[in-house]
Design brief:
The chain has one domain (2-398): Glycosyltransferase, CATH 1.50.10. It is built from 12 helices and 11 strands. It has helices at 2-30, 57-74, 77-94, 119-136, 139-156, 191-207, 211-228, 253-270, 273-293, 317-334, 337-354, 386-398, and strands at residues 55-56, 105-106, 112-114, 117-118, 167-168, 189-190, 229-230, 235-236, 239-240, 315-316, 365-366. β2 (105-106) and β3 form a beta hairpin.
Length: 399
């Protein structure tokens, strides 16, 4: 037993080292935009900002969530300052004062570039505001999170088929182009958006025990079981039309293993005994499918498997972070030490391949030969501190 305890203690120390000596110094030194306010929209590999880069809602809300979570755990005033800065910029610039809700993309000066209301972005704002409320106790912050939740429910919840329609225009009329990003399909519903609405509503329900919120969170879990989870393959389906008919056969291993632990968090919050047993089974099967089909020889997680069954043989930073938490969660659910071994191998892969020990932070992606793509930014609209810092916080807590 002492050998296992020693291994866990050692791993916990390595996780702390990556958090405090690799990831955080990069954000504390290179992310703040003292010229236009808030944070730089993009920062290159060596820490050089792209000063005229656009500023995305997802990056800013992820910074807000991350530094709120860091302050909650470590009470370092530097983390509180970062969270305050992210909150102020997000609400001053991204909040739509005309129609309510969050705008998607701004230019480097804070002017609107894309005014769509994407449910993915609304969800991340709810998630982040809730976390900020936990450290400030500011009732206005909670009320803003609730206001966005109600806008989502009023305008984008599908009362006929359940689930959430991906995207609205600025005035909350449904958009013709529903895509989250250029690489996504133009479909009415997606696994990715529902996963993060579930994550956001779980966090909100932790501080606001509203019956309707609970009902909607429970319905998202049911939709996962009935529509998004594929019992035949052990994976999640990615895109759907309005009545939940699947529109893609692509497998995203990172979302599979991220969902494996976010689903359990939702069920823990709901205390839903009848739903929980199935949740544990789905959770473990998602991890097993990722191990079987989506793992590199060195225990990294591949980007995805195409509809044709081809593996995209690159490893991106976020799948590795989510895999580490997924393995830890599977160990907690099963007490099977095999998952602990996968966790250790996963973290070693991160240390040896994803972490940039020279300049700080993690590389965006690494090819099958272990060579990082230095053309991808360390900070961008899609690459924030949330996946890897959250993984560190989760592992420190769980280990």
């Amino acid at each position: 037993m002492s050998t296992k305890n020693d291994a866990v203690k050692s791993l916990k120390g390595r996780v702390k080292k990556v958090l405090f000596e690799n990831i955080l110094p990069f954000w504390l030194e290179y992310s703040i935009d003292n010229e236009q306010g808030g944070f730089w929209g993009r920062v290159a590999n060596e820490g050089v900002p792209v000063k005229n880069a656009p500023k995305g809602l997802i990056l800013n809300t992820r910074i807000l969530w991350t530094f709120s979570a860091l302050y909650k755990k470590y009470a370092d005033p530097v983390f509180l300052d970062f969270a305050k800065r992210a909150y102020q910029y997000t609400m001053e610039k991204f909040w739509d004062k005309e129609y309510g809700g969050m705008l998607w993309l701004l230019d480097y000066r804070g002017n609107i570039l894309d005014d769509k209301k994407k449910m993915y972005g609304q969800a991340f704002t709810v998630y982040a505001l809730t976390e900020y409320y936990k450290i400030t106790g500011d009732a206005q912050v909670l009320q803003k999170a609730i206001e966005i939740f109600r806008l989502m429910e009023e305008h984008n919840y599908d009362n006929k088929y359940t689930g959430y329609l991906e995207t609205s225009n600025r005035d909350w009329s449904l958009a013709e182009d529903m895509r989250l990003s250029e690489k996504d399909l133009n479909e009415k519903k997606s696994m990715n958006t529902h996963l993060h609405i579930m994550e956001a509503y779980t966090n909100l329900y932790g501080v606001w025990r509203d019956d309707y919120l609970k009902k909607q969170l429970k319905q998202i879990v049911i939709d996962f079981y009935e529509h998004i989870w594929d019992d035949a393959t052990g994976h999640l389906k990615s895109f759907f039309d309005e009545d939940w008919s699947p529109q893609s056969g692509t497998v995203s291993f990172g979302h599979d293993i991220e969902a494996s632990w976010l689903l359990m968090e939702a069920l823990d919050m709901l205390g839903a005994d009848k739903l929980r047993q199935k949740g544990e089974d789905v959770s473990v099967r998602l991890v097993n499918s990722t191990i079987k089909e989506g793992m590199t020889p060195k225990c990294g997680i591949y980007k995805e498997k195409t509809e044709e069954g081809l593996l995209l043989a690159v490893t991106e930073w976020w799948q590795q972070a989510e895999a580490a938490v997924g393995f830890c969660n599977a160990y907690r659910l099963t007490n099977d030490s095999t998952y602990l071994e996968f966790l250790e191998k996963s973290w070693r892969f991160i240390e040896e391949n994803m972490v940039d020990w020279k300049y700080g932070e993690w590389f965006y992606e690494v090819n099958s030969k272990g060579v990082p793509n230095l053309n991808n930014y360390k900070v961008s609209e899609w690459k924030g501190p949330y996946h890897n810092i959250r993984a560190c916080l989760e592992l420190i807590s769980r280990l």
